[in-house]
Design brief:
3-stranded antiparallel sheet, 1 helix, 116 residues, two-stranded antiparallel sheet, single chain, alpha+beta
Length: 116
């Protein structure tokens, strides 16, 4: 079981956050086996936003702030994309056609993916 990492999760008043005996209930951070926000670390988008508002600046500084523009060049523009020629006119896979190909996003050049 994991706890939500939202720094203000316990402040939101919902039934599943209430814990304790009758008459002495308190709100607690949500605890679940799986979360869907903040890469599986926050119980809701609100908690994920709270985390980023509190820790985002420090995280960007720690992992590296972009100080110069990042440029896409012909050398680093290759992306794996769906092969639109994979199916024939009857939606049957073409023999020996790869599902995915590499496409240069600048030049539009395409090539088959080479297995290592």
């Amino acid at each position: 079981m994991k706890f939500c990492q939202g720094p203000r999760c316990h402040t939101y008043d919902t039934q599943d956050r209430k814990r304790g005996p009758k008459g002495n209930k308190t709100n607690q951070t949500r605890r679940r086996s799986q979360f869907y926000y903040l890469s599986g670390n926050a119980c809701s988008l609100q908690c994920a936003n709270d985390w980023f508002d509190t820790y985002g600046e420090r995280a960007v500084d720690y992992f590296g702030r972009v100080t110069q523009p990042i440029q896409l060049t012909e050398d680093n523009a290759w992306r794996q994309v769906w092969n639109h020629n994979y199916y024939d006119d009857n939606y049957n896979p073409r023999p020996n056609a790869p599902r995915y190909i590499e496409r240069n996003m600048i030049t539009g050049e395409e090539r088959n993916i080479v297995d290592n």
